[in-house]
Design brief:
453 residues; homotrimer; elongated; eight-stranded mixed beta sheet; four-stranded antiparallel beta sheet; 30% helix
Chain lengths: 453, 453, 453
């Protein structure tokens, strides 16, 4: 923070939306599941950008109430009609085979086949996304119209998959800050070709980590890329002691569509990260949806389980499950866009900036207002209406900086954007009217703030 | 609770509305007041259903700031015109004579008579209900149209009543539960032929007590049938010490009309009974009216006086005094109906079920979610939208059962009906994922819950 | 309070609005600033009504972060065109010369002159009000239309002012009550011919002080007439120790227009004065605007600075800066009216009455309701709808007077006007049903309350 620019200003670049979109496009085709080579390929792609540490946990390892399952890999899958034509082909879309399908190679009637087919009758042109991680089963997913068009004949059904002892794989990257206190940023990497859920989240966090690598921060930032549920549980089981360092956190998923933004608060409900994200969203010009915590959604379910109760919220665009494209083949690269990704990135960066810099400062002249005019801080001619908004932030910071209100408190009280309050507090600190209190960070270094203040 | 069914399920029967209506119809014709034979006849009728204990407190007994008044009884009352025709006749409606009217036998002019007549000019066809318990006086109540039709002649006015030393009479029935902690259920029995106010309440509580008699409950339930105000004051004066056992309570009045439901909270405002009734009403599909406590209404005024401050609320359909039929001859048997009585009974039963079973339970596996799937508790195929609502209750109970949230807290937080939360908690307790904490009751006995779970 | 009348009843007279308007009109023409003879003339006018103590603080005196500035006086000011005609003349309106303008006597082109002219292009017929207290400068203020009509020629520009060592002048009046605890009532006296801002506030407080002079009160009342900002800061610097006596306070400004009423709460937000004014306004029949504290407005900025944090709110009609007439020549005597002034006076008087009399009383018969009927307090005939509202106040006072609720708490809970609660509490105290608790004042003296109760 030594150049006086906020973390948000230092993190955001003009091409960030395009960069996130490009990386999401790169990993979109990979067939991921909660284990297997698809996860490894995705982590390798991330490791091209940041110094990712990749962990492998063997099948059978107990992680709290769970056990690491067998590793699943798939090479091919199709349904051939009597003419030998592939009417459904895994090579066309990895959504066609239910994730964790056991191998099958069989001829069967349409009636028999239908017991192993999922469709969406209400969205008849889309392929649904289905999984069966802990129940040995197999199935194909296909458009409802396709199923209805299949003649009543015998089909050759092949799923060339394997379920064998292997590993669960996840990756993490730690950006070291001035303290060991951590901010957790987590994305799930277990979904196959679904662009928003969660190529968008994986790509956003990868680019955020890459951009942050060159920056000095107060907190250490832990970026976790792990399969949903079992991956988060595994990380928590392996890091139970370390998890106490997590002071703030966000689960990031589905951040590329045009909806929302949506924020689901941590189980605590009033954690600093909750207030920071809500504040950032409220000042973004969109209509946000703010939700209280419920244990329904993504890996915040594990981070916020009562035995951990970490201050971790969920940031999304469209609300979990609310978009028609959710968990279907319509969640493709057309569903996400660079401008939405850039907006999501910007909001997360602003929330992180608040978490980084928010603290309680103290007015050094608490009796009556200090004379701002002779310090060149105040519009000199009384009655000039243009000076009003510039002065409001100063007066609010001075009035409420009594040792009990943080900058975020003051921003909320004054209904002003946090960056305005933060910049103004920098200015007041430079003038000696505001001092740090307790463990508050310095708002600005030796360098002067820019003239554009 | 040992068969796994909720108290509400065990209390409600399909014919309950008809049964309450029939009993209300039976006691409707009786001329009740705050003392006298009408009260005794009503208590005798109740005693045909339950083992009622009837108390008699002598005239002149001091009860806090009050004194038991003389006992009032009435045999006849009429106004005869010069032709000797009864233009007003107590035998036609016991509302015609103001309650506690002193005896009178006199000839008088219309002008003189009018000083002792109450009518409702705005509801000219109805007889008003009037009382004068503590002021020696007499009066007739009649339709305004009738009064206006009376020619200016001499009338023979007779009220054949008596005001003599006697007793105040009330009845109580104690259903003994597993503990001595009590739930108070109170109805006033001092109104003459008013069907909703309060034959409906008396009948509802009588049938509730009758139905409860065969059931095992956690709490003891005290059913009190007493004249309004002076009766409740008398009971409190006679049971000051015992009143401390009352942990929850409801005054039940006017529960047979089509309005409401209305609930006025106890003076405490956040008592368990307040939250239980509000929760039950909010999930009933009607538009409820929830009122903060004011010392205006029925006997909750006494139970919630500052010297007692008992957690007792008021359950009604139309709000106190809000219906046009209130305290008039239009409050007859046409004003109440079995379906409304059944709905009121069901809501009260559900509130009592909450009070009975609500407690704090503890998740035995608080670190991350337990693996519900391998216990057969979770929809096996990820993405199946039908499994969503069934799973939400489980996840919420597990997440919030951290030793600080009760089942009712969780129902409110998850915005799910308490019975769903309760049944789901039973299931989780059977699986060993939930344990009792402190004095929480077992949610289910040895018997399995039904397959229809 | 010994005659049983409330402070509000004793303060308000039928002609109060006319009297305030007359005094506002008297002081309106004076050219005031933060120092100088205009302030002295205004204080002299106030001193004709009350025993005002006038203080003079020398130029150069340090008051916290500020220094008393040089004293400014002005004799004349004009702009003459080439024909020698005064196109702008201070004698016509003292708004024409920016307050604290340094002396000038010069010939200059229109282009040069324009650098020293303020207008309001959006309100082209009005003269703006401008000041430059702490920046040596000079300027004329004029209607935008006038500026646009000036031909491009040479003008003679004269401001015959002086800026010399002198004094800052303010006045205060202390009405001594039964205790040394004080209520601060403060108005700024630094604006020239602006009728609402703040001749109205100065006049209202002068007449309030005059009317109060003959009355016995519980609190002492300090009336402060001082220049805005520097005057309040000076008073606080000179009275830092004494300021601790201030238990309640109001800044009174712009109280004569038809808008509002508006109340901005003290920094504490829940001070008694905040609740008192809000209650009074809510029951006045107008639509009030209630604002949370922000350090933007009048001298509450100083009283509520964190080093003092006094319980002082701001009472206004139109909200600060919201009226189009604000700080323009349209804020003249046509903008204010006796009826608005009377309404403001009445609301302030009612709030002061609440502050004077509000206290916790105790029900002497807390177990069940006392029998109001035999004390003649209760409508004798049950069912008489007219008795309802009269009884509600009694029952609420008795129920909530448990040692934790003050009369104002009860008025808010019962949603009844404080005067009704206060009068009813007097009655109950006379009957022995209510006793004082702690330092509560007697609600009534020996004299009976009037029959009109």
């Amino acid at each position: 923070m030594n150049d006086g620019r906020s973390l948000q200003e230092r993190l955001v670049t003009t091409d960030i939306g395009e960069a996130i979109f490009a990386f999401a496009s790169e990993i979109y085709p990979i067939c991921r599941s909660i284990t297997g080579h698809g996860v490894r390929r995705t982590l390798d792609a991330i490791a091209n950008h940041i110094e990712l540490e990749i962990r492998e946990v063997p099948t059978g390892t107990a992680v709290f109430d769970w056990v690491i399952p067998r590793e699943w890999n798939i090479r091919d899958g199709y349904i051939k009609n009597q003419q030998g034509e592939k009417v459904v082909d895994f090579a066309q879309s990895n959504l066609h085979v239910m994730s964790y399908s056991v191998p099958v190679r069989q001829r069967m009637s349409l009636t028999e086949l239908k017991k192993h087919v999922y469709t969406l009758p209400d969205q008849p042109d889309l392929i649904p996304y289905r999984t069966s991680y802990y129940n040995d089963n197999w199935a194909f997913c296909m458009p409802h119209r396709l199923l209805e068009s299949l003649p009543d004949e015998t089909y050759e059904v092949v799923i060339d998959s394997s379920l064998t002892d292997g590993h669960l794989t996840y990756g993490e990257y730690l950006h070291r800050g001035e303290t060991e206190d951590e901010v957790l940023l987590s994305a799930h990497i277990c979904h196959p070709s679904l662009a928003n859920d969660n190529c968008s989240g994986v790509a956003l966090l990868t680019l955020l980590a890459k951009r942050m690598a060159g920056l000095r921060t107060r907190y250490s930032y832990r970026f976790l890329f792990a399969p949903g549920t079992i991956g988060a549980i595994t990380w928590l089981a392996c890091n139970e002691e370390n998890s106490r360092r997590i002071k703030h956190g966000l689960v990031v998923s589905m951040v590329g569509d045009a909806g929302g933004p949506t924020y689901k608060k941590s189980r605590r409900g009033d954690a600093k990260i909750d207030r920071a994200v809500v504040h950032a969203i409220r000042h973004c010009g969109l209509t946000p949806t703010i939700l209280e915590f419920l244990p329904w959604g993504y890996d915040e379910r594990q981070y916020c389980s009562p035995g951990f109760n970490l201050p971790v919220g969920l940031f999304q665009r469209s609300m979990f499950g609310a978009a028609a494209e959710y968990h279907t083949s319509a969640d493709n690269l057309d569903f996400i866009a660079p401008n939405h990704l850039a907006m999501s990135y910007g909001l997360i960066a602003e929330a992180l900036d608040i978490v980084e810099s928010d603290a309680v400062y103290c007015n050094t002249m608490p009796k009556c207002e200090p004379q701002l005019g002779r310090r060149g801080l105040y519009g000199a001619v009384g009655g000039d209406k243009d000076a009003v908004s510039a002065n409001m932030a100063m007066l609010c910071i001075l009035n409420f900086s009594d040792g009990t209100h943080s900058l975020l408190d003051i921003a909320e009280r004054a209904n002003l954007p946090y960056p305005v309050i933060r910049r103004t507090a920098q200015r007041l600190q430079q003038c000696g009217l505001l001092t740090q209190s307790g463990d508050a960070p310095a708002l600005s270094g030796a360098a002067k703030v820019s003239a554009g203040f």
